[in-house]
Amino acid sequence: MKIDRLLSIIVYLLNRELVSAKALSDRFGVSIRTIQRDMDTIDLAGIPIVSVQGPSGGYGIMETYKMDRRLMTTDDLFYIITALSGISSTIDDRRIGGTLEKMKGLVPPSPTDPFRARQEKLYVDFSMLGGGPAQREVFRVVQAAVEGGRLLRFTYTSNKLERATRVVEPMTVVFKWRAWYLYAYCRLRGDYRLFRISRIQKPEVIEEGFRRRELGFDDFSRDYDPALTGALLEMRLRFSAEMAPLVEEFYNEEDIERHGDELVVSARMPEDGWLYGYILSFGHFVEVLEPARLRNIIRDSSIKIRKLYE
Q1: Is residue 68's pLDDT more than 60?
Q2: Among positive and negative, which fits the CA dihedral 101, 72, 79, 222?
Q3: Residue 139: strand, helix, or coil
Q4: Could you tell me the residue range of the domain that residue 184 belongs to?
Q5: Rounded to whole angstroms, what are the CA distances from 139 to 163, 171, 191, 280?
Q6: Local confidence band at 250 (pLDDT 50, 70, 90 cut-offs)
Q7: Could you tell me if 34 and 72 are in contact, meaning their C-beta atoms sit under 8 angstroms apart?
Q8: φ, ψ for residue 168 (rounded to 5)?
Q9: Judging by beta carbons within 10 Å of its beta carbon (0-12, 13-18, 19+), is residue 71 exposed, middle or buried?
């Protein structure tokens, strides 16, 4: 759309002194004549465009019109841009790119790149959390349903490896526990749910809209927090010495008891298929001490695994 292109051109020019008509034409995929007409339109809209002739010339926005950079320090801008860059590596959303351009436009001019040295000391990359092209497309559809206020239908596999088709009222996209989730009201269960987006398959936006329910994600997190509702399983795990680096990385020091070379961990986690898989992933380097029921579940699973290789 023309209005989108005009806004993008304005942001692009705000971040640069002068840009040639050819460079703008190549960037926005239109003819040089169209760029010239766009410059006239932007100027008529009240944004003062300057035009410089010659080989080094081009279009720009009058310096006195550009955004006031005194509102934020370079440190403020660095952290905002770093955070946005990290998010943009996992979400395919052009609007984030546009926001980044606006933020970069606030960076004070300097003969040296003020961000280059900072990036060598702090760099955020969430690209692995975005998954491959198929997962990114799922995320895009989910996000479109949330922003459009439309029902969403998809196939979902729960922590208990139960698969079902869900129709939900999508409310909030959430980054929590090192993954992306969808907070929604599930019409199948008749209750609020948190769906891990990586487990969503074949999402489809339904044209039917819905009235947003009152329970926001903050309230849901507080009311349904397993640590507060008592839904966490208390357990004790004994790890062999080889696992010490991983145990020390994952658990707090106050939760670890040291008995010679062995480590005994007291932990509380939601009981589901993920927990069983997590414990089994340590192989023979971990033993469940308590509770007895969890110990039996892991023992039975280990026996079944062994039979696969006999």
Answers
A1: no
A2: negative
A3: helix
A4: 133-224
A5: 19, 14, 22, 30
A6: confident
A7: no
A8: -130, 160
A9: exposed
Find where tokens 């298929």 sit.
273
Beta bridge partners of 233: 269
Same domain, 102 and 180: no
Q: What is the dihedral of CA 174, 177, 178, 181, to 10 degrees?
A: -30
CA distance 185 to 220: 11
Q: H helices within the chain, ranges in order? A: 2-14, 21-28, 32-44, 74-88, 94-104, 114-119, 133-148, 217-224, 226-229, 244-250, 273-280, 292-308
pTM over the 0.70 mark: no
- Helix (H/G/I), strand (E/B), else coil: 217: helix
Return phi, psi of residue 293, to 5°.
Answer: -65, -45
Domain count, the chain: 4
Pairing of strands 179-186, 191-196: antiparallel
Q: Tell how strand 232-239 and strand 286-290 pair up.
A: antiparallel
Question: Could you tell me which of 13, 32, 36, 30 has the C-alpha nearest to residue 22?
Answer: 32
Strands 256-259 and 262-270: antiparallel
Higher pLDDT, 85 or 43: 43
Please state, in angstroms and as integers, the Cα–Cα distance from residue 302 to each residue in 112, 297, 298, following that order.
Answer: 60, 9, 6
**Mean pLDDT score across all residues of the chain:** 83
Taking alpha carbons only, the member of 169, 208, 197 closest to residue 185 is 169
> What does the pLDDT average to over 242-269?
91
Q: What angle do CA 286, 302, 200 make, to 5 degrees?
A: 90
> The domain that contains 20 carries what CATH number?
1.10.10.10
Spatial CA neighbour of 43 closest among 27, 29, 59: 59
CA 109 to CA 81: how far, in whole Å?
Answer: 16
Nearby residues of 47 by Cβ (< 8 Å), 6 or more positions away = 10, 61, 65
Q: Which residue's structure tokens are 């010679």?
A: 260
CATH of the domain at 144: 2.30.30.520
